[in-house]
């Protein structure tokens, strides 16, 4: 008994459309009624879909439907994976935000621990922090401050909108007793940076941050 060729083609089309993986001629034959001409059905489908958005292709001896190769660009989607800051990075960012312009040594003094080599690198890479200038003190250490991207990320119009100590305590974000040496300055009283000189072209940045210097002016 020979099946209607159109019916065979439709059956193969349905099987390939629903299959999670490519199907071989043998796979299709097992699912089709006896007498079905699988080869003819595949040839018919191949001709029908040639030049369309979806094409019938053979991969490693098996058949499947796939997007036409010249339209693959339509299927490309770029996703930006959110990057979570470590606790150390969050603490460092908070210190920079409230104490800027601040040096690495000053950050370590407030936190009470040595700054990890990669912590500032991450903040610089994400564009939340930038190098502002050099402190007019022995060694001329580089100072750090926040960027416009920091304000945008946290929905702040200006640094003056940073929460003060009373607001942080009211929100339960700050213990009643601060750790020794830790302070939360008034956001409106941030230093102006008059005690620092701007970085100049060719000015050497700290080794840990040289890869992410970018525009540090």
UniProtKB/TrEMBL annotation:
<protein>
    <submittedName>
        <fullName>Segregation and condensation protein B</fullName>
    </submittedName>
</protein>
<keyword id="KW-0159">Chromosome partition</keyword>
<keyword id="KW-0132">Cell division</keyword>
<keyword id="KW-0963">Cytoplasm</keyword>
<feature type="region of interest" description="Disordered">
    <location>
        <begin position="186"/>
        <end position="217"/>
    </location>
</feature>
<dbReference type="Pfam" id="PF04079">
    <property type="entry name" value="SMC_ScpB"/>
</dbReference>
<dbReference type="InterPro" id="IPR036390">
    <property type="entry name" value="WH_DNA-bd_sf"/>
</dbReference>
<dbReference type="InterPro" id="IPR036388">
    <property type="entry name" value="WH-like_DNA-bd_sf"/>
</dbReference>
<dbReference type="InterPro" id="IPR005234">
    <property type="entry name" value="ScpB_csome_segregation"/>
</dbReference>
<keyword id="KW-0131">Cell cycle</keyword>
<feature type="compositionally biased region" description="Acidic residues">
    <location>
        <begin position="194"/>
        <end position="206"/>
    </location>
</feature>
């Amino acid at each position: 008994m020979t099946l209607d060729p159109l019916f065979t083609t439709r059956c193969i089309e349905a099987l390939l459309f629903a299959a999670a993986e490519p199907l071989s001629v043998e796979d299709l034959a097992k699912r089709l009624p006896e007498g079905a001409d699988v080869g003819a059905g595949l040839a018919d489908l191949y001709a029908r879909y040639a030049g369309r958005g979806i094409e019938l292709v053979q991969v490693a001896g098996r058949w499947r439907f796939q997007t036409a190769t010249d339209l693959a660009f339509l299927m490309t989607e770029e996703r930006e994976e959110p990057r979570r800051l470590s606790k150390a990075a969050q603490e460092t960012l908070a210190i920079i935000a409230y104490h800027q312009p601040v040096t690495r040594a000053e950050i370590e003094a407030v936190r009470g621990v040595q700054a990890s080599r990669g912590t500032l690198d991450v903040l610089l890479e994400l564009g939340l922090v930038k190098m502002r200038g050099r402190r007019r003190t022995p060694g001329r250490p580089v100072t750090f401050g926040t960027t416009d991207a920091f304000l945008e990320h946290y929905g702040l119009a200006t640094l003056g909108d940073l929460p003060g100590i009373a607001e942080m305590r009211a929100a339960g974000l700050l213990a009643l007793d601060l750790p020794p040496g830790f302070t939360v300055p008034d956001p409106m009283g941030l230093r102006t940076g008059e005690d620092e000189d701007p970085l100049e072209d060719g000015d050497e940045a700290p080794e840990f941050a040289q890869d992410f210097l970018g525009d540090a002016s």
